[in-house]
Design brief:
Structural class: alpha/beta
CATH class of the domain at 24-47 and 231-322 and 383-465: Alpha Beta
Distance between the termini: 59 Å
Largest sheet: 8 strands, mixed
CATH superfamily of the domain at 24-47 and 231-322 and 383-465: P-loop containing nucleotide triphosphate hydrolases
Number of strands: 22
Strand order of the largest sheet: 2-12-11-22-19-16-18-17
Strand content: 5-15%
Length: 718
């Protein structure tokens, strides 16, 4: 079997935004601020407590759903979830059922917890790849993939989707390069009788999206747009001396944005001072002291990498927290209260920073449970700072008075690219939360990879347009073929947003030949391999393979056909882990003497058995995952009872990456277990294998976090 993905450096080169020789390193930081900021800083604080009064756009959106579909676009933190709450409440009063779809498991958990408090636990269920609870509840909160799968099932059985309302949160994920296809599928397949409420950050072509949906659903989609931030945002420049300046100034009658003159003067110095030497982090402790003096805490620091998030903790001191012994005691008590029920998390190496410095690191390298601890403490106002990668900006609600931006670019998984206006707005949308702050701040730190001019432009830049990300994959083809002829599928593809945009561009009905041709190539391969017959009907193999709604359904399906899967639960989990692995591994470094022969024998049999099939897929232009022993061995050890820390050391992964491998393996095992009527023994092994790997410290839910015993903090901790 050959490798099918490009090798790439884990540290791609980045272009500095201004190369200036012999920069002067600032070793002493003294807090100061430009006089122009005094009236702005005087506004800092929590707004007066008063009865909640919804904004005009919120009321308009609630009314719009009574008459049709609705797309709400508004800045992050403006109160879009309130709209969903009101619409759902009205649906419950009518005895109806609701589906709330989100793009992220973390957001799903948060919404689930919120809705349990609002509507009662008996009325709310949750469905993700690894959690299923109260699935017959009146309100289902789940990931969009689960909703898409339910629509597949409804098409196949001929039964209507059992819901009367669908809410799609973070609907701008329609344009996500990896996940957008699922969002588009849901919008195409959803029965027109079911009202659709879409909640989105601001997008550049909301009316175009509404026009597309109106054309395919036959009911008007009303756009409710809100551009005003409920909490005003003030961008600041943190001079290396410690003095704060406005970042931008308004120029001209049309409100053209430019850098503030003092920021421009800094940039044009021959030897501008810098906050840290090359390849070193800024002095976070000193920066936080400046932010504290001007009451700009709590803050979210957006870092470029996990390593920088962790490294930033080591640069913090306890001086910020030391000025408030009562809060220090409260934080210590709360950390102990939360972690006492979780022996593994209680020994986390970053507990000291959390408990004694009031700072935490939040990134994908952390265990889900630890991230929940950080989120809980941040939401309760007990932390001064959270160091996070930019991924936390999307979909997770943290109250912060300020965000601190160190880089004007981000790593997209392949290379570094400049922040888009949508990404910038997502990040700054975390600054100043409605009902908690009168004003919010975006603090910009100077650095080699922070283009101040680019960030200034983003503050006033129109949001990007959303483009269709639909593509054809084998799981889609198999599931559509369950209940549609090729001609009917062609009709569905012609309802895609991609086709709509193409026809708008050309001014006539032309169809989307690329999508259709891609579908036909997939269909021909399925015929060649016996999943579809010559009459364009799924064979028996095609029918059960359609239930494998996973990344590599045909490879896994071929394992079943060749009877390569083991019946031992730990071995089954191990083999599935090889299919979900996302990174290159060095199998030569494994000490195979510590592994049972049954593991290596089963793995080699599967890899050898699948080699001809994988080669055919690659020859046809499809991807076929390269199977590594290392992830299989890692999951085998975990399923067999090896302690977590020993498995972690063997894997060579960060805890969050190992957790992701476990969770993705569990999700695939869940789909395999659904084939019990066709492959009862393998399905039973898959079900037992899933149970064997879904255990502490992987499984930690919001319900396991004890509630505060005291009154929550109402304002900034400083």
């Amino acid at each position: 079997m050959t490798q099918n993905f490009h090798r790439r450096s884990p540290h791609p080169k980045r272009k500095g935004h201004r190369q200036t020789p012999k920069k002067k390193f600032t070793s002493h930081i003294r807090a100061g601020s430009d006089a122009a900021l005094k009236p702005i800083f005087e506004q800092i604080g929590a707004p007066e407590a008063r009865p909640f009064a919804p904004d005009r756009f919120q009321l308009e959106a609630v009314e719009a759903v009574r008459h049709g579909d609705c797309l709400v676009t508004a800045p992050t933190g403006s109160g879009k979830t309130w709209i969903a709450e009101q619409v759902i409440r009205k649906a419950l009063e009518r005895g109806e059922r609701c589906w709330y779809a989100t793009p992220l498991k973390a957001l799903t958990n948060t919404i689930f917890s919120t809705f349990c408090d609002l509507f009662g636990k008996d009325k709310v269920g949750i469905l993700t790849g690894d959690i299923k609870d109260n699935a017959d509840a009146s309100i289902i909160v789940g990931t969009t993939e689960i909703l898409r799968n339910q629509l597949y099932d409804a098409m196949h059985t001929g039964q209507d989707l059992g819901t009367n309302l669908v809410v799609m949160d973070e609907a701008h994920y329609l344009g996500d390069r990896d996940r957008g296809v699922v969002w588009e599928e849901v919008m195409i397949y959803l029965p027109s009788r079911v009202p659709l409420l879409m909640l989105s950050a601001t997008v550049g072509n909301a009316h175009q999206i509404a026009e597309w949906l109106t054309s395919i659903r036959g009911r008007e989609v009303q756009v409710i747009e809100e551009t005003h931030r409920s909490v005003p945002l003030h961008p600041l420049f943190f001079h290396p001396s410690g003095t704060l300046f406005p970042l931008i100034s308004q120029k001209g009658a049309k409100g053209k944005v430019g850098l503030h003159k003092k920021v421009t003067a800094y940039m044009h110095q021959d030897r501008p001072p810098i906050l840290a030497p090359p390849n070193r982090l800024p002095p976070m402790g000193e920066i936080m002291k400046v932010l504290k003096k001007y009451r700009l805490l709590p803050a979210i620091f957006f870092m470029k990498s996990r390593a920088d998030c962790n490294g930033a903790l080591e640069l913090c001191s306890g001086e910020v927290l030391a000025g408030d012994p009562a809060r220090a005691d409260l934080l210590s008590q709360r950390v102990d209260e939360i972690l006492s029920a979780h022996p593994h998390l209680s020994k986390h190496k970053q507990r000291y920073h959390l408990e004694h410095l009031a700072v935490g690191a939040h990134h994908s390298g952390q265990l889900p449970g630890w991230k929940i601890v950080i989120e809980t403490l941040m939401n309760e106002g007990l932390l001064d700072a959270m160091f996070a990668t930019s991924t936390v900006a999307a979909g997770v609600n943290f109250p912060a008075r300020s965000v601190v931006i160190l880089n004007s670019d981000r790593f997209n998984g392949v290379d570094f690219e400049s922040l888009s206006s949508s990404e910038y707005n997502q990040m700054t949308g975390r600054a100043g939360r409605r009902g908690k702050d009168k004003v919010g701040f975006a603090v910009i730190l100077p650095g080699k990879f922070n283009d101040l001019g680019h960030l200034a432009r983003l503050t006033n830049q129109a949001p990007e347009r959303i483009e269709s990300q639909i593509n054809i994959n084998f799981s889609m083809v198999l599931n559509l073929m369950l209940s549609n002829t090729p001609d009917q599928i062609r009709g569905l593809l012609e309802q895609s947003f991609a086709t709509f945009l193409l026809e708008k561009k050309r001014g006539k009905s032309v169809g989307n030949s690329k999508l259709w041709e891609d579908f036909l190539v997939h269909l021909d391969f399925l015929k060649l391999k016996g999943f579809v017959d010559e009459e364009n009907r799924l064979t028996v193999d095609g029918q059960w393979a359609s239930r494998l709604r996973i990344d590599a359904p045909l490879m896994v399906g071929e394992c079943f056909r060749l009877k390569l899967f083991p019946e031992d639960p730990a071995l089954m989990a191990a083999m599935v882990a090889s299919f979900v692995n996302e990174r290159e591994r060095d199998d030569d470094s494994i000490n195979r003497s510590v592994l049972p022969k049954s593991l290596t024998r089963t793995f080699l049999n599967i890899r050898k058995g699948l080699t001809p099939f994988a080669r055919e897929m690659i020859e046809w232009g499809f991807e076929a995952p390269f199977l590594y022993l290392h992830p299989a061995a890692t999951i085998y050890l975990w399923a067999s009872g090896t302690p977590w820390n020993d498995v972690l050391q063997f894997s060579g992964l960060q805890e969050g990456d190992l957790s992701r491998l476990v969770l993705r393996t569990a999700d695939n095992l869940h789909h395999i277990a659904a084939l019990k009527s066709v492959f009862p023994r393998a399905a039973a092994a898959a079900a037992e294998g899933k149970r064997a790997i879904m255990k502490d410290p992987i499984v930690t839910t919001l319900e396991e976090i004890p509630a505060r015993k005291d009154e929550p903090v109402s304002d900034s901790p400083v």
